[in-house]
Amino acid sequence: MPNFGQFGNATPDTEKxxxxxxxGFSSFTDDDFEDKGGLFDPxxxxxxxxxVYDCQTGFTKKDNTLMKTILMDIHxxxxxxxxxxxxxxxxxxxxxxxxxxxxxxxxxxxxxENGIGGADDPLWTTAVGxxxxxxxxxETSEWNxxxxxxxxxxxxxxxxx
Length: 161
Hints:
five-stranded antiparallel β-sheet, alpha+beta, 5 strands, 161 residues, 36% strand
């Protein structure tokens, strides 16, 4: 086991820094209390242009199957953005979803030619920053006795050439 004590201990220099370490925030303004909407707020159903923000590795809760969590941003004309999440699970009955996602971001030929390996396949790194179009729908469900609506990706569109 490594001995990190040899590097010394990080300690705050002032009482204010000590307080910041405990509380995390020193003051709030009226602006902090305004509802600014959120990155994941529901948006109207429709077709949107997206940019792949990140591809994160994870495992399903049900059976611990390898999956990629795809984070995609929609940049709105007013300067705000909405982030949608999709899950690509490494199961044979989900190959179609991999194909439609990679096709939508212009990497369908690379997928067809090389396939995709595990979670560290270079194609995932290439996907970040790529753009495409998808159709968004809204799904309403009850959670803790409260109705909630969330965005879901209904369909990916192949780029028009």
